[in-house]
Amino acid sequence: METKIIPYLLLPKDHTTYYYYDGSLTTPGCQETVMWYILTEKLSISEQQLNIFKSVGTNNGTLSFNHRPMQIVGKRAIYHHLDGYSAATIHFSNLVNVCFSFLLSKLLYFK
Question: What's a Gene Ontology MF term here (predicted)?
Fold first, then answer.
């Protein structure tokens, strides 16, 4: 039995406040061709949900690992969008949000 995932249902309610930056693919090639968006509202999942999520299959294996190690921010500009305010460059160090964006991008890749 095939299970369908509806990515929109995995998102938090607030879609108006987020971080964004130019980045790269996390799969081989790792081309610098991706604009990453990370919502600031955090969601929690149980350990059981995380284990199920990690077992999801893709063309490159399961989601239990990343094909590319975490990259340093370096001189990369990271912007914060807050509804009603202009974007401003910030220093972003919340790796949890970066990991969530990677996992979400994998879900959006599924057909």
Answer: carbonate dehydratase activity
Full residue range of the structural domain in which residue 11 is found: 7-109
Is 1 a domain residue?
no
> Are the CB atoms for 13 and 110 separated by under 8 Å?
no
Phi and psi (nearest 5°) for 62?
Answer: -95, 175
- The CA distances from residue 16 to 19, 20, 57, 82, 95, in Å, are 10, 12, 31, 6, 20
Residue-wise pLDDT tens digits, 79-109:
988 877 654 444 444 445 555 565 555 555 5
**Claim: this prediction has a pTM higher than 0.70:** no
Residue 33 lies in a domain: yes
